[in-house]
Write a structure and sequence with these properties.
With 437 residues, the protein is an alpha/beta fold. 30% of the residues lie in helices and 26% in strands. The longest helix is centred in the N-terminal third of the chain and has 13 residues. It binds shikimate-3-phosphate.
Length: 437
């Protein structure tokens, strides 16, 4: 079990290149792997979560070759993929999704529509996460998915078959559930429609269009008509704004910091973090905005000025759901009160992130009160270094490594291997930009 130690850091004055977007990397490997033809996926995130998807697509018949020349020290980022043209093969053994909810939920949508049975498993954290949110709609389409207990937890046994299209109103705002249904719809006769209560990340819709599949979007309704053959297209994955978030906060809280992040994904359904930080007083500029493979990307510039508290809640929550742990750290370092509400979904992430954030902030001396759907943080109390659990959750480990840069004394993060699930070079970057003399 590895740990890392953080002490008060120096002011950030850096350019930081962020590895590929996790959500987009998963989807790029799935769609390329099912496509007709060959293509190159570049900028892929070689983290454990995305590699679980890559291995799954190989087990399902895609030919995926790593281009070793693209390894910049944290894994291979460019792959040549020859798709199986929609003819997936039955996997020889259960597919291991590791810690990755995205792999499990999106693959379930694909596998539910295949003429074979399959099994999806994962680690202890994933095995405690609810899969009924995908089992119910895929069941309505005609698939049979068996899991453990009334939440249908993994491992999942998927009895695939020819499905029927549905119109499904999502009870929770989840891009993973939306995507599972749309991916099942690719193999299904007729029009499959998903109705979202609130806008969630739209990478699946954008990427399906980039791979030649018409997807319509009217208000809250997203539809595609199947069956569809995906056409192979080269695809470039931009940097992950959820990983950039750690550095955006580290720079924004400290007066005089100067940070540039080139080539980062700026999809409107993911940039809520910029809005929240701006509300807190951050100076963040966007430049060089372009669209590549259907995804907006550009550069971010942060000029550190210190932050004030804000209210976070309502429709912006799905847009910033993965950034709430680091925003809570920002709130503790800001002046004034921050309220986070409508975020009960955090309780069913890689760990219960409300409880984990509150426990770790309190251990560092912050004034924070837990609420059923969020927390209230009185910012501005000095933080003190402490020994903190990661709860096996990558975003908790990284958020509190950043907190440690602003605390008196030493902060020791325990059980930090989990960082590899989304940001394989986080620690080397932390050492380079904030800890080295
Ligand atoms: C993701 C969607 C979100 C997010 C997760 C990645 C995706 O989950 O928290 O890290 O790639 O679709 P939900 O769909 O459960 O909100």
């Amino acid at each position: 079990m590895s740990t890392f130690r953080v002490r008060r850091g120096r002011r950030i004055h850096s350019e930081i290149t962020i590895p590929g977007d996790k959500s987009i990397s998963h989807r790029s490997m799935m769609l390329a792997g099912m496509s007709q033809g060959s293509c190159v996926i570049s900028g892929f995130l070689p983290s454990e979560d995305c590699l679980a998807t890559l291995h799954a697509m190989r087990a399902l018949g895609a030919v995926i070759e790593a281009d070793a020349s693209s390894d910049e020290g944290f894994g291979v980022t460019r792959y040549n993929v020859r798709g199986c043209a929609g003819n997936l093969q039955a996997p020889q053994e259960p597919i291991d999704c590791g810690n990755s909810g995205t792999s499990m939920r999106l693959l379930s949508g694909i596998l539910a529509a295949q003429p074979f049975d399959s099994e999806l498993g994962g680690d202890a954290s994933l095995s405690a996460r609810p899969m009924n949110r995908i089992a119910i709609p895929l069941g309505e389409m005609g698939a049979r998915i068996e899991g453990v207990g009334d939440q249908c937890c993994p491992p999942l046994k998927i009895h695939g078959r020819s499905l029927e299209s549905i119109t499904y109103e999502l009870p929770v705002a989840s891009a993973q559930v939306k995507s599972a249904i749309l991916l099942a719809g690719l193999f299904t006769e007729g029009t499959t429609t998903v109705i979202q209560p609130v806008i969630t990340r739209d990478h699946t819709e954008r990427m399906l269009r980039a791979f030649g599949v018409p997807v319509t979007h009217e208000g809250t309704h997203i539809s595609l008509t199947g069956p569809q053959q995906i056409q192979a297209r080269d695809f470039h994955v931009p940097g992950d704004i959820s990983s950039a978030a750690f550095w955006l906060v580290a720079a924004a809280v400290q007066r005089g910091s100067q940070l540039t992040i080139p080539h980062i994904g700026l999809n409107p359904s993911r940039i809520g973090i910029l809005e929240v930080l701006r509300r807190m007083g951050a100076e963040i500029a966007i430049s060089g905005l372009v669209e590549e493979s259907g995804e907006p990307m550009g550069a971010l510039n942060v000029h550190g000025k210190g932050l004030q508290g804000t209210d976070i809640g309502g429709e912006e929550i799905p847009n910033i759901i993965d950034e709430i742990p680091i925003l809570a750290v920002a709130a503790a370092l800001a002046e004034g009160t921050t309220t986070i509400r409508d975020a009960a979904e955090l309780r069913v992430k890689e760990t219960d992130r409300i409880q984990a954030v509150v426990a770790n902030l309190q251990a560092m001396g912050a004034a924070v009160e837990e609420k059923p759907d969020g927390m209230v943080i009185q910012g501005g109390k000095p933080l003190t270094g402490a020994t903190l659990p990661s709860f096996g959750d990558h975003r908790i480990a990284m958020a509190f490594a950043i907190a440690g840069l602003f605390a008196d004394g030493e902060t020791v993060l325990e059980d930090t291997d989990c960082v590899r699930t989304s940001y394989p070079n986080f620690i080397t970057t932390l050492e380079r930009v904030a800890l080295s003399d």
